[in-house]
User: Which sequence fits this backbone?
């Protein structure tokens, strides 16, 4: 649908134009928003570190999503992947 209302970039030309790499956080409006996100991630890290059952609940939920939606049936691989995802989101 070239020039469809609400579409970005105008008519399709068949040429892909990659987004610029100005900043990996360019979609965040300002520094205050970024600080709120960092604070929320730290809050979650602190909660996970204080309560291993709480952290395991998150890992289990991610693991079940990997099982149900992506067919990863190996328990060890699934839980390791779930923990990696959790670390990527909250600990990186």
Assistant:
């Amino acid at each position: 649908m070239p020039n469809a209302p609400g579409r970005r970039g105008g008519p399709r030309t068949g040429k892909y134009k990659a987004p610029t790499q100005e900043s990996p956080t360019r979609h965040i409006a300002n520094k205050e928003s970024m600080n709120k996100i960092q604070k929320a991630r730290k809050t979650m890290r602190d909660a996970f570190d204080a309560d291993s059952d709480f952290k395991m609940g998150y890992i289990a939920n991610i693991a079940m999503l990997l099982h149900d939606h992506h067919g990863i049936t190996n328990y060890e691989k699934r839980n390791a992947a779930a923990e990696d995802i959790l670390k990527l989101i909250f600990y990186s």
Notes: Residues 45 and 51 are 10 Å apart (CA to CA).
